[in-house]
Design goal:
With about 550 residues, the protein is an alpha+beta fold. The protein has 3 domains: about 45-130 and about 255-285, SH3 type barrels; about 140-235; about 295-410 and about 440-510, Orthogonal Bundle (MetI-like fold). Helices cover about 60% and strands about 15% of the residues. It contains 14 helices and 13 strands. The protein has helices at about 1-10, 10-40, 90-95, 150-195, 200-235, 265-280, 295-325, 330-345, 350-370, 385-410, 415-420, 425-455, 490-500, 505-540, and strands spanning about 50-55, 60-75, 80-90, 100-105, 105-110, 115-120, 125-135, 140, 235-240, 245-250, 255-260, 285, 290. Strands 6, 7, 8, 9, 10 and 11 form a 6-stranded antiparallel β-sheet that branches. Strands 4-3-2-1-5 form a 5-stranded antiparallel β-sheet, with no helix packed on it. Strands 12-13 form a two-stranded antiparallel sheet. Helix 9 (about 350-370) packs across helix 10. The two termini are about 40 Å apart.
């Protein structure tokens, strides 16, 4: 009994409890990431496609995903176990669903035919079918023909080339029409806001007529070229047959990729797996964000975090310096510190409402009135954008930076500060040469905590600038390069949108898992960068208590 009392008094029990809690937390993190890895990245692998023949003579071409046993109850009240199989049948435009559960006792035969083909389409998800023939260059090629798949690949490449050229021609047409659209917009604004300025309006209409006459021939030529590409692509199509016997005419311009999984070896499947992962990182989303890549969301998340950090660090450091080095310590400073501590507990959606009212409506609306009045009523800065979202999150994370910086400043030995002042340094010189360098690890601790919280916040962003799909990035090669008024995509909102707002939630689950893992990786990368810099400064300024 005495040994037990001594054991508790020494505090060894608390050390064991702390170590146990740490191990349990690490195990939970590893378990969570493992689930995300397995559920997410497994979806990039090209599984074999089975031909499942049922006892009622129906046939499914599908990927077999998982098998589980369920407990069912018969009409007589007896319970029994039944094995069910979850299959991905795809062909959403035919079956109105991507997945289906079937009972194993209803299956008569399962085969893996080599000639089954999976088509990844730009719309309606995957199509799993047998290819019957191909119409290309005015000829019909049958699957039994020699070099059929080489011809099919050539036809697909030609279709992609035609589609790309058509899109380029459409962009060129938009560029040609852009000046006319601007003049028409000016005329509309003048007629609404200044209807009495008839001379100016008439002058603009004359400019529109002159410009229209100059580019009419160019517009006609571009439209003819676009129509030609449409006709060429309409003549490249395949006839395919689904598992239930339905024949489908499939234009190859609607296909993103095709492959025959049952005819692929491990090396070719691994190559396709790596290609899909790369496309996930660098391409734009498609099919209501449930397929394709997430590059715009990655870019928006990182840029928002950087802008947030640039905004919050100076104000947080200056506030902490004032409270500790300049402000008279008393009731007012204690009240300010209490207010800062309470701000850290305010729900994030409240910050979002504040950002909407102050930054967007008041500040952005005022700037529009002063500098962009010619574009009104269409707002320029008086609407959500990455700038206002970043500033809103900087307010959200400001208390964290202030508190961490204060702790760093308090950890600087008073003797060092007094010694600098005694040697004739001014107060600002003492702060710049002694306090800030030694408090830098504490400042970076605040930045790390701010990044961790800011990167994962979604609620404030939903009303200050984040969108489901942003056609253009906030940064590009067009002057002034940084377009802080543009709306943006965010990984956290992307997870919410795909996981809870998608019309086909089950099909989008792999995208949810992989996007969540990517968000975790980005937050860890940003934090590790700050931690590396903090450790470097700790070694440089060994007098810091951090």
């Amino acid at each position: 009994m005495k040994k037990i009392i001594t054991f508790w008094k020494k505090g060894d029990s608390y050390i064991l409890l702390t170590a146990g809690g740490l191990l349990f937390s690490l195990a939970m993190v590893i378990f969570m990431i493992s689930i995300i890895l397995i559920k997410g990245f497994a979806s990039f692998y090209a599984n074999d496609v089975a031909e499942i023949k049922m006892k009622d003579n129906s046939i499914y071409l599908a990927e077999i995903l998982e098998t589980e046993e369920v407990v069912l109850q018969s009409e007589s009240g007896k319970t029994y176990n039944q094995k069910q199989i979850n299959i991905k049948i795809a062909n959403r435009d035919i079956f109105d669903q991507d997945f289906k559960w079937i009972n194993s006792n209803e299956i008569s035969k399962i085969e893996y035919p080599q000639n089954v083909t999976v088509f990844e389409r730009w719309e309606y998800g995957n199509l799993i079918a047998y290819v019957k023939n191909l119409n290309y260059n005015g000829k019909v090629y049958q699957t039994r023909d020699k070099d059929f798949w080489d011809i099919f690949s050539s036809a697909f490449e030609k279709s992609e080339e035609n589609k790309s050229e058509k899109e380029n021609l459409e962009e060129e047409l938009n560029d040609v029409l852009s000046p006319i659209s601007e003049i028409q917009r000016e005329i509309s604004l003048m007629e609404i806001n200044f209807p009495w300025k008839t001379k100016e309006i008439e002058k603009l209409k004359q400019q529109e007529e002159i410009l229209q006459a100059e580019i009419n021939s160019q517009i006609e030529q571009l439209n003819q070229k676009i129509e030609q590409k449409v006709i060429e692509n309409s003549e490249i199509y395949a006839t395919v047959q689904a598992g239930d016997g339905t024949e489908i005419t499939l234009p190859l311009e609607k296909v993103y990729r095709f492959y025959r999984p049952n005819d692929m070896n491990f090396i070719s499947k691994s190559g396709l797996y790596l290609t899909r992962i790369w496309e996930f990182l660098v391409e734009e989303p498609r099919e209501s964000n449930t397929e394709g890549g997430v590059f715009p969301a990655i870019f928006g998340t990182v840029m928002m975090v950087i802008l947030m950090s640039i905004a919050v660090v100076p104000f947080g450091v200056l506030a902490a310096l004032y409270l500790n080095e300049y402000a008279k310590q008393g009731f007012v400073t204690r009240l300010i510190r209490l207010a800062i501590a309470n701000l850290a507990g305010v729900p994030s959606i409240v910050y979002g409402i504040f950002g909407l009212g102050f930054f967007i409506y008041f500040l952005g609306g005022t700037i529009d009135q002063l500098f962009f009045s010619s574009k009104l009523p269409e707002p320029t800065l008086g609407t959500g954008g990455i700038l206002w979202a970043s500033l809103t999150l900087s307010l959200l994370t400001l208390p964290v930076v202030v508190v961490a910086t204060e702790e760093g400043i308090l950890a600087v030995p008073k003797a060092n500060k007094d010694g600098a002042l005694a040697l004739g340094a001014t107060k600002w010189q003492m702060i710049r040469k002694i306090v800030l360098p030694n408090a830098m690890p504490g400042i970076l601790t605040g930045v790390i905590l701010a990044i961790s919280r800011g990167a994962g916040e979604v609620a404030p962003l939903m009303i200050t600038g984040v969108v489901k799909l942003a056609p253009t990035l906030p940064f590009d090669t067009t002057f002034p390069f940084f377009h802080l008024d543009r709306k943006f995509m965010h990984l956290g909102f992307h997870i919410y949108d795909v996981g809870f707002q998608s019309p086909n939630v089950e099909a989008s689950l792999p995208m949810v898992y992989t996007t969540a893992l990517l968000l975790i990786f980005i937050v860890i990368t940003l934090n590790l960068s700050a931690i590396f810099l903090r450790n470097y400064l700790r070694k440089k300024f060994k007098t810091s208590a951090f």
